[in-house]
Amino acid sequence: MDIQTYIIECKKRWRWFAYTTAAFLLAIIFFLFTTAPQYERSATVLVKDENGGSGLLSSMSAGMGMLAGMAGINISSNVDNEMAIMSAPSMMMEVVNRLGLDTRYEVYDGLMKHELWEETLPVKLTFPKLTDKDGAYMKMDLKSDGTFTLRKMRKNKDKMDGEIEGKVNTVCQTPIGPISVIATKHFKQVMDKEGDMTIRITKEKKYDQTEKCMKKMDISLADDQTSIIYIGYQDQIAERAELIINTLISIYQEAWMKDKKNAASISTQFINERIKDIEQELSGLDKDIAKFKGNNLMPDYEEAAKMYMANAALTYEQQVKVNNQLYIMEQMRDQVKRMEGQNQILPANLLPDNENVALQISEYNKLQLQRNQMADNSSENNPLVKDLDAQLASMRKTIVNTLDHGVAQLKASQKAVNREDQKLKQQISAAPSAVTQVLPAERQHKIIEALYIYLLEKREENSLTQIYNSQNLRIVSPPMGKLKPVFPKKGTVLIIALLLGLILPSLSIYLKLNIKQILAEK
User: Fold this and answer.
1) Sign, Cα dihedral of 361, 363, 368, 373
2) What sign for the dihedral angle of Cα 226, 228, 233, 238?
3) pLDDT tens digits, 270-288
4) 257 — phi, psi (to 5°)?
5) Taking the mean position of all CA atoms in its chain, how far away is CA 190?
6) Distances from the Cα of 329 to the Cα of 313, 356, 382, 403, 449, angstroms
């Protein structure tokens, strides 16, 4: 078949092109007249680096990567973790609850169905007896004087007969249960403009509405080289899309602050318990020293022991450091063992010289919070919850093993320091007997006092961390977008209709001519 024959055949069947193009154009025009436009709004937020803070466990992260890899623990980046939390269904469900997105109000404008929202919404309905798993539908004939009629009611798949009349700002009894009808602040303005109107009201199942909203939400990393998160949302109402994004960010920040406060509260409680024990020990030493000096009328012996103390200065500093670290690490290990199976986060930021344990506990706390949140949203028997329990048990074992190893190392260091201390004590024993009797008590007093001051500083540091770590997100760009809808694009769909109207007849003619030619050759 040559091209000239093909063109002649196309001219003969020009009506095919006209009819097909007209049909597609009519279909597209009908589609445009019945499809509500969709608008897109997006925001970008910067996730701050939590490791830059000065909290109680902020300095305990060195060497964690190697041990975590040996233990089979997958440590993802901070941005990925926060992005997963922000994308969680529980976050979107809270947005649905706060904004009442599970109840939809629609009216027809010609062939197109429009949603009512804020300034265009005259009334709001609540369904106190419906559960999150129930759905409902009804039509409301609303009049300017505030009276209304509810009809064509449906609960889930069950249709309800009859019509219910009522007045706004009251509770009316219906076959699907009591319904509260409250006039919004825009009621008079809307009714003066629109007059009597028929509103189609749909109460979605909360889980279904959450899933629908999640499909419209796009949360992704803006750039592989940055910690900026892109948050986009498509909706029929641009203002509502902006409000949903802002509400999601607010809910995320509130949850983050709650987690931080819980972690800080556990750490503060742990420190307060240790301080109370040390205060009692210091009080006993103070009484012993005061009693000894009073009974022996002991003068100031510091000048007499100055030579020995100069030699003991370095050993003393080492002893203070080792005792502090050993005490805290043993207490931390005992605390971890006691908390097994309690599904609580571990106290943080107490070992400034052991960054390995710091990062292990930080990752454990994040996974524990994720597990608790998932258990609250489902149940303890959820397979995902049990899987997280297994991971947490493995992480606790790794943390305890690391603490045991650290305790063993510190005890070895303590023995070496104590041996050096014994040598100094033998030298000091040559001093007057009164000095040798009281000096160990005073040295022990100073060691414990140094630990006491250290814990007080950490408690204050923890309080400051709570104040200054008020946010972990910085809004780079607030929700915004183009004034034109992103769907449907009229120019694009019209061009597609024209192309289909031309291509389909052309293809049909081409196939018909080729079939005739093949049959003729046979």
Assistant:
1) positive
2) negative
3) 888 887 888 777 777 777 6
4) -65, -40
5) 38
6) 24, 12, 34, 7, 18
